[in-house]
Amino acid sequence: MYLKKLKLIIILSIVFTSFSYSQRYQIYEGSFENLNDIKLFKVAFNYENIQVHGFDSEEDFLREKMEKRKSDPEKAANFRKHWFSNRDEYYNPAFVNYFNNYFKKGERKIVADSPYLMKVNLTWIYPGYALEPAKLSATIDFIDTTNSKKILVVHFEKVIGIEKKTIEVDEYERVIGAFEKLAKNLAIQLK
Q1: Burial of 32 (0-12, 13-18, 19+ CB in 10 A)
Q2: Within 10 Å of residue 132's Cβ, how many Cβ atoms?
Q3: Is 28 helix (H, G, I), strand (E, B) or coil?
């Protein structure tokens, strides 16, 4: 009798743990059903209030990374420059491409112009290491721009990046994986 109860407790705890890890989003306002009839979105990315894991601010993170490269001032300056330019060059396009490719028949799509805005507010980042994927947290606002009404506000917490089959030495490659996974997690909810 004791063993049966113990087995049941173990099984239930595994099920609930698995469920809680798979549901790593929280709806702050509205519902996904509000988007049922909307197929096209324009997108905007907001990095204004992003926090970097282990640092008080993004500037503290950049200061430390540049300090580590101080023996090569050009390398230090390039790190800072690329930290910001990678957003438009790699991260934002990775999100858009993954999202659009997820919907093979074009059921949903990010386009250049639509009255419906998907505003991706990045709130937290962990850039990862060569053997560890990057992670992201983001709050995504869906807004009807014709009346500035928020249709849905959903937060994705610590999304673990899609791991490539190789060791990613370049930080931006790992962060691309996190943006792709964020797009995938969102797309799954919109399917």
Answers
A1: middle
A2: 14
A3: strand
Place of tokens 């060569």: 130
Rounded Cα distance, 164 and 77, in Å: 28
pLDDT digits (tens, 9 = 90+) for 65-122: 999 999 999 999 999 999 999 999 999 999 999 999 999 999 999 999 999 999 999 9
- The burial class, CB within 10 Å (0-12 / 13-18 / 19+), for 150 is middle
Q: How far apart are CA 21 and CA 185, in angstroms?
A: 12
CA nearest 35: which of 156, 154, 179? Answer: 154
pLDDT tens, residue by residue, 16-47: 443 334 458 999 999 999 999 999 999 999 99
Residue identified by tokens 């980042």 is 125
> Among the residues of the chain, which ranges form H helices?
2-22, 58-68, 73-86, 92-102, 171-190
Closest CA to 114 of 40, 32, 44: 40
Tens digit of each residue's pLDDT (9 = 90 or more) over 134-163: 999 999 999 999 999 999 999 999 999 987
CA dist., res. 142 & res. 147, Å (int) = 12
Output the six-digit token pair for 64. 């430390």
Instruction: Report residue 1 CA to chain centroid gap.
Output: 46
